[in-house]
């Protein structure tokens, strides 16, 4: 709509870049949205508001206005050359003041029937699937973010290689199928959509976990429980934590004991140990080597959850014990 208004006011609508694909074939590199807008407007797909606030379709416009639109001169660049020349060229120019991102560059370098089909599917903001995809993939269709994710997932992050070997393909079936498998899997396993799901490495998670079976209802309860847990600092980690069987608490970045708690627990433990002539690390005290009477300094110890956090143990002084660093590490971050 803004494009049509700009044209009617005689404002420039910016450079449009084409890529020479073959002798008689050009591909839009930048300007797809603007070209599509004009095309849809002159075929009466949408209306604009005129200066009186009235809806105005192209078909019903005054002759001079119609002519103004149809005779608009566009400033167009046609880019051609070897792959490395094109790449170099695009590294140095800015399109619409924004540097080309990596996927846009790759689209230019590997232009051809495959990229054209890719863009129709993944870079088309009219695609009704975009809304669903946006729950799991961040970015925008215009800047090729969905395409980049789809290619990254199917190629295990070897996007350039994949585009190069599929460059002349006349279909994108494998890409489409794989992308929908990932999206369908996520949306089946996790029935609720949470903000933190956007932009996670769903391709990797799909590869690692899609053969396991999950109970979506139970999973949903677990997600809600962890979302409500004040000790969970990393909500992004909740999904992989659950997929992996709820054991790797590192993913959740669980809140640790504060210094005051550690200090006071250390003091109590050490006083008791000195009386009993045993180590102030309760696990060292159980051992049979020289360390079983060792009194560690506070700096040589770490706080540990007596009842592990993952089994409901709280991060409070009552559930805190100090262990020497070696024993704490051996017990693991549970
Ligand atoms: Zn110890």
Describe the structure.
There is one protein chain. This protein is mainly α. Helix 4 (83-92) runs antiparallel to helix 5, helix 6 packs across helix 8 and helix 8 (145-154) crosses helix 10. The protein has helices at residues 2-9, 32-42, 63-70, 83-92, 102-109, 113-122, 130-134, 145-154, 159-166, 173-189, 202-209, 216-227, 238-243, 259-276, 282-286, 325-331; strands spanning 16-22, 25-30, 48-49, 55-56, 76-79, 94-95, 98-99, 301-305, 320-324. The strands form 4 sheets. The chain has a 3-stranded mixed β-sheet, covered by helices on one side. Strands 3-4 form a two-stranded antiparallel ribbon. A hairpin with a 2-residue loop joins strand 1 and strand 2. It has 16 helices and 9 strands. The mean pLDDT is 89. It folds into 3 domains: 2-183, no CATH class; 191-252, no CATH class; 259-331, DNA Binding (I), subunit A (Orthogonal Bundle). Residues 281, 283-284, 323-324, 326-327 line the site of zinc ion.
């Amino acid at each position: 709509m803004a494009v049509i208004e700009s044209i009617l006011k005689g404002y420039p609508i910016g450079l449009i870049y084409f890529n020479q694909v073959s002798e008689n074939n050009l591909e839009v590199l930048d300007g797809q949205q603007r070209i599509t807008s004009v095309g849809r407007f002159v075929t009466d797909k949408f209306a604009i508001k005129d200066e009186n606030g009235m809806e105005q379709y192209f078909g019903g416009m005054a002759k001079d206005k119609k002519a103004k639109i149809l005779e608009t001169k566009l400033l167009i660049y046609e880019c051609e050359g070897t792959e490395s020349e094109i790449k170099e060229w695009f590294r140095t120019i800015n399109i619409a003041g924004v540097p080309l991102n990596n996927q846009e560059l790759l689209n230019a370098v590997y232009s051809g029937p495959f990229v054209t089909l890719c863009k129709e599917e993944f870079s088309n903001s009219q695609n009704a699937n975009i809304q669903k995809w946006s729950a799991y993939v961040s970015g925008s269709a215009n800047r090729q973010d969905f395409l980049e994710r789809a290619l990254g997932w199917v190629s295990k992050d070897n996007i350039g290689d994949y585009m190069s070997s599929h460059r002349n393909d006349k279909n994108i079936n494998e890409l489409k199928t794989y992308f929908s498998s990932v999206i369908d899997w996520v949306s089946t396993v996790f029935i609720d959509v949470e903000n933190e799901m956007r932009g996670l490495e769903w391709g990797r998670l799909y590869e690692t976990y899609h053969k396991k079976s999950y109970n979506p209802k139970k999973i949903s309860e677990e997600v809600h429980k962890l979302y409500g847990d004040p000790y969970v600092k990393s909500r992004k980690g909740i999904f992989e934590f659950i997929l992996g069987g709820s054991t790797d608490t590192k993913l959740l970045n669980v809140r640790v004991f504060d210094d005051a708690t550690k200090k006071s627990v250390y003091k109590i433990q050490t006083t008791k140990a000195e009386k009993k002539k045993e180590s102030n690390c309760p696990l060292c005290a159980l051992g049979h080597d020289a360390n079983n009477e060792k009194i560690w300094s506070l700096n040589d110890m770490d706080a540990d959850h007596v009842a592990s956090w993952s089994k409901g143990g709280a991060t409070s002084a009552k559930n805190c014990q100090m262990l020497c660093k070696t024993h704490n590490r051996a017990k693991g971050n549970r």
